[in-house]
Specification:
With 448 residues, the chain is an alpha+beta fold. It has 18 helices and 14 strands.
Length: 448
């Protein structure tokens, strides 16, 4: 067995041990689902140790497993409040923390990507990582800009240098192959879903994240679309190579800090800006930022939302698909038949499957409550309620969800929507979300 498959197998074994360990602890709950476990059934010590185990395992992993941990961190708001504390601290660490690569490996990667004279390109370079990305780490540095004229003193700019972990590409691809082997299990969990095309789309989109030169093109498109914007800031790309990306440094308060310590006003504004980014980017840039975990956002001193890490994007040259806005409008209008027909046409319901149109509308209606009113406050309790409704096997919503499919073209849109809802619920942010949709989402009409 070569090193890559062996490491992938070790990662898979570690990842598999997590639910087993958690299952052993929650067995004390006599089979109750996590969302219904009473405080006195699972002790605080057990919760803390489980959270530490989760971070210990996921924090050691690169590639797909690290991305899994970061994605999971978005949804800690769905945990019951009595369990959320220990997990919140452990999972939030995954948003900006990971074991660093050795300095020798770092320098070798920089020399390979930027040339043997890479040090000459920088006035300063900090060997200690400032943050971690899912497949790389970020260093703070000062980049020398070319002088405007001969013999002029070169100008400098504060930069973030993202360096891909050695072997991260092979590790990520190996993780995706492991995921493909679980297709049969997904079929049992979600019988109505076509898993293979979904995994193919996932593999193609995630593999794109390995190419930092492609990410540079994407970030440049975002930066141009939001140049001089009063609400959203995207740092410029300074230099790029396939495995190293140099961009302007973004100073600001991490969104995780706003979540934990921000005022109500600060959290509300952060939520409004995140929703604005989500819905306006496809119209303005033809792209959707597809990695909405708090580690990728900063609140700047001037009130703008700073956005970083453009490795994961959905390419939407025509903007958000019009059927999304149209079907949300039909659902708000109570048009069950229209919603069912539209979802069938888009591939969410298979052509030959029978489905109760009114039951489908009842399934969807609570999810779109945030845009049924002038202003809505996302809360952890609201998200927990939805998680309970959708995950309980006895719930009609759970039974109906097993009949639904996720078309590959909607994969990243779905991921961003769920992830954004998770972050908005962490922020407990109130904003006029319906107005944002009216402005930016094609097909969405005023309600009432």
């Amino acid at each position: 067995m070569s090193d890559i498959p062996r490491r992938a197998a070790a990662r898979t074994a570690k990842l598999a041990a997590l639910p087993l360990g958690f299952a052993g602890r929650t067995a004390l709950g006599f089979g109750k689902r996590a969302v219904g476990i009473a405080t006195d059934v699972i002790s605080e010590d057990i919760q803390r140790r489980t959270a530490e185990q989760l971070f210990s395992v996921l924090g050691q992993l690169k590639g797909g497993a690290m991305k899994f941990g970061q994605a999971l961190s978005v949804f800690e708001a769905a945990l019951p409040e009595e369990m959320a504390g220990p997990y919140r601290q452990a999972l939030t660490k995954l948003q900006e923390a990971a074991p660093p690569m050795p300095v020798a490996s770092l320098h070798k990667a920089l020399a390979e990507q930027l040339g043997p004279d890479w040090r000459d390109k920088f006035a300063e370079f900090d060997d200690s990582p400032a943050a971690a990305a899912s497949i790389g780490q970020v260093h703070r540095a000062v980049w020398k800009l070319p002088p405007a004229r001969r013999n002029a003193k070169p100008k400098t700019v504060q930069v973030a240098v993202k360096v891909q972990y050695p072997g991260a590409g092979d590790a990520l691809i190996a993780d995706l192959k492991q995921l493909s082997r679980l297709a049969g299990m997904f079929k049992i969990i979600q019988p109505g879903m076509d898993i293979k095309p979904l995994l193919a789309e996932l593999r193609e989109r995630i593999t794109e994240e390995l190419d930092y030169a492609m990410e540079a093109e994407t970030q440049t498109a975002f930066a141009e679309a939001f140049a001089d914007d009063a609400e959203i800031y995207v740092p410029r790309v300074i230099a790029a190579a396939p495995k190293v990306l140099v961009t302007e440094w973004v100073d600001g308060t991490p969104l995780s800090k706003i979540i934990s310590d921000g005022t109500v006003e600060e959290r509300d504004e952060a939520g409004r800006l995140m929703a604005t980014l989500h819905f306006s980017a496809p119209a303005r840039a033809g792209l959707l930022h597809a990695d909405p975990h708090p580690g990728n956002f900063r609140m700047l001193a001037d009130g703008r939302l700073g956005v970083i890490d453009f490795g994961a994007v959905a390419r939407l040259p025509g903007g958000h698909p019009e059927p999304i806005g149209r079907l949300v409008r039909l659902a708000l209008d109570g048009d069950a038949a229209g919603v069912a027909a539209g979802l069938r046409e888009e591939g969410f319901v298979k052509q030959d499957d029978e489905i109760d149109a009114q039951g489908l509308l009842d399934f969807l209606r609570p999810m779109i409550e945030p845009v049924a009113v002038e202003r809505f406050r996302f809360t952890r309790s609201w998200l927990r309620g939805e998680a309970t409704r959708l995950s309980s096997p006895r719930s009609p919503a759970y039974q109906l969800s097993r009949k639904l499919n996720l078309p590959p073209s909607y994969l990243l849109i779905h991921r961003v929507t769920l992830g954004s809802i998770g972050v908005l619920s962490q922020l407990e942010a109130e904003a006029p979300y319906r107005e944002i949709l009216k402005k930016w989402l094609p097909g969405f009409a005023p309600v009432g």
